[in-house]
Specification:
The complex is a heterodimer.
Chain A lengths: L4 H11 L4 H21 L3 E3 L4 E10 L3 E3 L5 E3 L2 H6 L5 E12 L8 E9 L14 H6 L11 E3 L2 E5 L1 E5 L4 E5 L8 E9 L2 E9 L9 E4 L7 E2 H7 L5 H8 L3 H14 L7 H7 L2 H20 L5 H14 L12 H20 L13 E4 L1 H29 L6 H4 L2 H14 L10 E3 L5 H8 L1 E3 L9 H4 L23 E3 L12 H10 L5
Parallel strand pairs in A: 9-17
Antiparallel strand pairs in A: 1-2, 2-5, 3-4, 5-6, 7-8, 8-16, 9-15, 10-11, 11-12, 12-13, 13-14, 17-18
Helix pairs in contact in A: 2-12, 5-9, 6-7, 9-10, 12-14
Chain B lengths: L17 H7 L50 E10 L4 H10 L11 H16 L5 H10 L15 E4 L3 E4 L2 E3 L1 H10 L2 H6 L13 E7 L8 E2 L5 E2 L2 H21 L4 H19 L20 H5 L5 H6 L7 E8 L7 E5 H4 L3 E5 L5 H10 L7 E5 L5 E3 L5 H7 L5 E5 L5 E5 L9 E9 L4 E3 L4 H4 L7 E6 L3 H10 L19 H11 L31 H6 L8 E4 L19 E5 L2 E4 L4 H4 L5 H10 L1 H22 L12 H26 L11 H27 L6 H8 L5 H8 L3 E2 L31 E2 L9 H32 L3 E2 L5 E2 L5 E3 L20 H11 L3
Parallel strand pairs in B: 8-16, 9-15
Antiparallel strand pairs in B: 1-5, 2-3, 3-4, 6-7, 8-17, 9-16, 10-13, 11-12, 11-13, 14-15, 14-17, 18-19, 19-20, 21-22, 23-24, 24-25
Helix pairs in contact in B: 7-8, 16-20, 16-23, 19-20, 21-22, 22-24
Classes of the chains: A alpha+beta, B alpha+beta.
Chain lengths: 515, 865
Amino acid sequence: MKKSAWGLVDAFFDKYDLVDHHIHSYNDFVSNRIQEIIDTSEPIELEQGQYTVETGKVTIEKPFIKEADGSKSKIYPTEARLRNLTYSAHMSLEMRLLKEGGSETEFEKVHIGELPVMLKSEICHLHGLGRDELIEKGEDPADLGGYFIVNASERSIVTMEEIAPNKIILERIGEEDEKRARAIVTSIRSGFRARISLEYRKPRKTGVFLRISFPYVPGELPLVILLRALGLATDQEIITSISDDFNYQMIAADDIQVSLDKLKLDSDKMEEEMDEEERREYLIRSAIKYIGNRVAKGMTEDYRIKRAEDVIDRYLLPHIGTEPDKRLEKAVYLAEMTEMLLQVISGERKPHDKDHYTNKRLRVSGDLMEDLFRVAFTSLTRDMSYRLERSLARGKEPSVKQAVRSDVLSENLKHAIATGNWVGGRAGVSQLLDRTSYMGTLSHMRRVVSPLSRSQPHFEARDLHPTQFGKICPNETPESPNCGLVKNLALMAKISEGSDPDEIEEVIKKMGVIN
Amino acid sequence: MRGILKKISQINFGLMSPEDIRKMSVAQIVTPDTYDEDGYPIENELMDPRLGVIGSSLRCRSCGAKGGECPGHFGSINLARPVIHVGFADTIHKILSSICRKCSRILLTETEIQDYRQRILEAMEREESLTPIIKEIYAEARRDRCPHCEEEQEEIKLDKPVSIVEGDYKLTPSEVRERLERITDNDSLLLGVNPEVARPEWMVLTVLPVPPVTVRPSITLETGERSEDDLTHKLVDILRINQRLKENMEAGAPQLIVEDLWELLQYHVTTYFDNEASGVPPARHRSGRPLKTLAQRLKGKEGRFRSNLSGKRVNFSARTVVSPDPNVSVNEVGVPELIAKEVTVPVYVTEWNIDRMKEHIENGPDVHPGANYVIRPDGRKIRAYNETKDVVLENLKPGYIVERHLKDGDIVLFNRQPSLHRMSMMAHEVRVLPYKTFRLNLCVCPPYNADFDGDEMNMHVFQTEESRAEAKTLMRVQDHILSPRFRDLSSGVYTTISQEHTSSQGKRLFSVRSRPPDPQEGRAPPPDREGREWTVKEIFSMVLPDDLNMVYLAEICRKCDECLEMDWENDAYVVIENGQLITGVIDEKAYGAFAGKILDQIVKEYGSDAAKEFLDSATKLAIAGIMHAGFTTSTNDEEIPEEAKERIEAHLRNAEARVDQLIEAYENGELEPLPGRSLEETLEMKIMQVLGEAKDKSGEIAESYFDMDENHAVIMALTGARGAMLNLTQITACVGQQSVHGGRITRGYDNRTLPHFKKGELGAKSRGFVHSSYKEDSILLEFMGGREGLVDTAIRTAQSGYMQRRLVNALQDLTVDENGRVVDNRGVIIQTRFGEDGVDPAKSDYGKIVDLDKLVQEIRLKSGK
C-alpha cells in the first residue's frame, strides 16, 4: 500500500470503531424502532370493542437496579458482571384504558419490562466516557462494547446474512435446456416474511406452465388466475401487462386457455346478459372463487370469498401493502416478474447469482432485537388482554397498571439473549463473547453467519465471491464444516442502518426522476 | 436359574400368536396404576411382582430369584378391540390389496397358484431367497375381479401410518383382521407368510405383551420421588384407554364414542411401538420431550444395535494424549506409570512364576510393578491391599490368578480414531515411563495419522493368552511396515542423512562418538579407522545388513535423458554392495512413507524384525546427525537475485501478451476450435496451457538460481523430506493461475470478476492469474482458489466418514478362505482367487508376483559384475 494511504486508514479509525455497526443499529432500535413496533402493534380490544387500550410514548431509562432494601442505584457493567446481574434498562410505556362512550382518561406511565442494554450504546452509562472515567468505572478502556450482559455472561449478537428481501431473485432449476426456472421474492412487512415463488415448469400432462405459491395457500396456483383475481379481468389485460413480446404473450395465452374451465364460467350468460363492466366483475369474482376453493375448502361460499380476499391482501407481497386497493399494484408487480422469468427461460436474461453480495443483506443486532421485541411485546399484550378480561369477568374495575406483568417482556428478551434461541426457532443468534484474546473479541463482534445448513455441501455459497471485495474479509473463515458460511466483516467495512423509503423516494423525485 | 445350559440349534423368525403371548404371560395387566399408597406394587398392574423385580431386596414371585438375577417375565394386556401393529401396516396393506374383499382368496387363478406354489417350494428346498417370487406374486395378484368368487374389487389405500381405506370407507382393525383370518394356509404361503410360523391375522393385535419391569426400570430420585420409564408411561396410557373402551362398550355407549376411543387406543399402541412413525404426532412427556418408545430404543446411532451391540465400552483400556519419543522403538509404546498401575494383566500362578507373582503382590497396588487383585480358583476376587496382602501371600498357590500391573515387554493394542484401516490398531510392546502421556516413535505416526497437537490415543490390554498370541502373530507394528496401502511407516527422518551426504560428497568427515548409531552391541564403530575418521556413508552402512545388495535411483534424480550413473555430481545413483553404501544419497526413496526401497528390501529379505532394527537405528543415526549439524530454513532460502526477478517478469509479460493474442484471435474469429470443443472451450484451454507453461518456466528460472548444496529449503524439496519445488517457486517467482471448480475464475460482478476490469475482459489477470509471488503482493482472486481448497477438505472429512461406514457395512463379512477364495458369510463365492491374482500386495513386489528387474540386478551384483 502506498505510504500516503495509511493516513486515510488512520482517519477512518479515528472516526469509526470496529463495532460501530452493532452500536448504531442498537441505537436506532432503541430510539426509533421500539416506538414504531408499539405504535403499529394491534391494539388490545376487550368485550367486542367495549374497552380498548391505547398506548402512547415509550421511555427508556439508563440502567439502574433496585436492591432488596428498595434503594435504587445506577449499575455499571462491571457490577453486573461481578454480581451475576443483567445489564438492562427500565422501559415504561404510556397507556390508558378507554371505555366505549366513556370519558377521556389520563395516560398512565406503566413499567413494561427490562431491556438488555448494549454496552457503549446511547442508553449505556459508558456512552461517551473518556479513558480515565472508564478505568474508574472498572472498564477496560480499549473495550469496544457492542455486546450485552445477561446474568453476568457477556453475549454478543452475531450478524446474520440473508438473501435480500423485497427483491426478485431469478434462478434456474437444473440445466438451461431443461427449461425450468423460478422467481422468488421474500416479501417482508413489519416482521412478517412471506415467500412468494413463481415457477415455470412443463406440466406433467395438462396444466399451466406458470404456477405461483405463497403463504396460506396450499399447493400452487396458476399465475393467470391469480392475476385475474387481482383485477386484471380480461385476457387481454393479463397478456399485455405481462409482456410486449409476442412469444411471451403466447405462453400466457396458453396458460389462460388451459386454466379457463377451472373458473367455471358461464359463457352464454356472459355474452348475453352482461355489459362490459359486469363481465369484468364476473371474471374477477370467479377467479377469487377459485382461490377461495383452494384456501378454505368445504366452507360456505361467503367465507371462501372473504378468506380468499384476505389471503391475497395480507399474504401476497405484503411489502407492497395489505389494503385491497393495492391489488392492481401487486398484479403489475407479478406480471413484471413473469416477464423476467420468461426471459430467463428463453435465455435472454441471465438468472441472478444468489451469492452476489448485491443480493444479500446483513441483519445486525438492532434488526434482530427488533424481531425479538416484536414477539415479546405481542406476548405482553396477549397476557394483558387475558388479565384484563379475567378481571372484567370477575366484575372488577379493570386497571392497566395491574394488568401489565413486566416479567413477560423482560423474561422473553432475557431468555432469548441468554440462550441464543431467537424467535422463529433460530438457535445460536447470540453467543458467548469470545474473550480468548482481544483480537478474538473483535473478530467475534464482526462475525457474519449465513443461515445455510452446515451439513450440506453448498459449494457455491462457501466460495469467496469477488463481490465480497471490501465488505467481507477474504481470509478469515473457520476450517470446520462451517467453512465459508461463517464470515467476518472486512476491517474497514461499515454497515448502514437503512433509511425511510418515502424519504428516499422524495429525494429521487426532487432530482428529476419521473415515475 | 444358574447352571441350566442349552445349546441353540436353530432360530425361527415368525410372528407371535395371541396364544403365544398369553402362554408366556405370567400376569394379566388390567389396572393402569403402578403402586399403592405405601409404595408397594399392586397385583395385575404394571409393576406386578410377578413380572420380575428390580432392586435386590425383593424376590420375584414367578421364579423366586432375587433382583438382579431374575431376568424378568412378560405379562399381557387383553385389548378391548384389536389394533393394527404399525410395523406391519405396510405388509397388511399389501396383503389386503392382493386378496379378495369377499372370500379372502388370493387374486390369482388356480393354475397360477399351482405354478407359484411349485416355485416357492422348490426355492425353499434349495434354500434360495423367496423375495423375487413373492414380489412377482404381489405384482400379479392385482385384479379387478376375484377369479374365485367373481367379486368386484375396490382399491385399497394405506393412509399412513395405520389406517386402511377401501375406496372411501375406512376399514376397522376388526374388519381387517377378519379378512386376514379367512386367508387359507395355502394362500398365505404365496403371500410370503409361512403358515408354520406366522398367520397373517397375527399382525393385528388382540393381546399386547407387557415387557418385564427389568426392561423398564423405574428410578427413585433423591427427593424420594419415583420416576417411571417412558415405556411404563406409554403402557399406562394404553391401559387407561383400554379400560375406558371396555367400560363404554359394556355400557353400550354410542358407536361414535366407541370408535373415538378405539382410534385413541390405536394411537397409543402405535406410539408405544414407534413414536416417530410418519403421520402421527409423537406422544410427549409432561415436559414436552417426545417419549422414547420401543423403536427409538433400537434405532440409529444411539440405539441398542449401533451403540450397545456393535460397539461397547470396555475395561482394561486407557486413553491419554500422545507425545513423541525417538528413544522408544517403533514397536513400543511409552505407557505412563499411572496407567500401568491401573490396567492389569491377569497371570495364572504356576509353580514357575509363583515367586515373581509374590513379589508383585508384595509391592501392592501402589508401587509400580505390583498387583491389584488376586482371583481365587473359586472365582472370588480379593484386592491386594497393603493390609490384606500377607494373608493373600500365604494362600497363594498355583491355580490362582494375579492381576498384576502392566510392565515392560507386555503386548498391548494401541489405537487412534478414526480407525480407518487395519494399521489404525497395532500391537505394541509396553515401556513404562514417567509422566502422563503415551509416548510413541515418530515412525508410526503415518499409519495412525497421529500428530502431537493434542491427539489422544487408546490402549487396550489383552486379558487372555489367546488374544495375546493372536496379536503377536498378526498385529505387531513390524508386521505392518509393508501394508496394502502404505509401503512403509516412516517419514521425515531421511533429510539429515541425505543432507550430510550431499554436502560432504562422501569426503567431509563426520564423527559420532557420543552416541553409537547402532544400539546393538559389538557393532558400534571404533573411534578411529585406518588413521582417519569415518565417512558418513560408512557410518550409515553400519545400520545396513551385511550382505545387502541393491542399486536404485534416489529421489533427487533429475531423470536425465542419459543416465550418468555413478559419475553424476548429485550422487543420485545409489549402490549398496555387501551392506556398504558405495555411492548415492539416502532420501525419501530409501525409507519414505510410500517409496522406501531399502526398507522394502530389508523387510522382504531379512524379515520384519530386521526392518524394525533398521528403522530404529537409522532414525537414531539421523537424530544424532541432525543434532550435530543443525538444520534450519528461513525465508532467505526463497530469495533470488534481482536479475532472476527481471527474467521472470519478462517471461510472464510475454505469456500475458500471448494470451492477449489468443483473445484477439478469438474475437476476430480466427481461432480454430479443437476437435470436440466449442470455440470458448478451445480458448480457455489454450489460455490455461499458455499460463501453465509460463508459471512452470518462471519456476524453472527461479530454480536455476537456487543453490542445491547450501539451500536447506531446496534440499528438503529435492529429497522429498518436506515441501515440493512448486511451493518454493510459488514463494519466489509466480503463484500462477487460481482455479475454482476446475476452471479459471468467472464469477463476480456483471460480466467481470472485479470492478477494476473491463466488462467482458478475458485476459490473464482478470480471470485469476496471479502474476506476483507469495512474497510480493496478494490479490483477492488468490484467496478464491485458497478458499476452495479449504472448503474441499472440510466437506471431504465429513463425507468420507459416512462413505467409510457404508463400505465397511457392505464388506465386513467377506473373508479369504483356506483355498484362497473370497467368500461372504453365507459361503457364496465373491472371487475365486483373492484380488483375481492371489497376490498379497503387502508381501509382493509392488503388487507383482515377481520383480524381474530386481532379480536381474541381484544376480548381476552377486556375480560380481
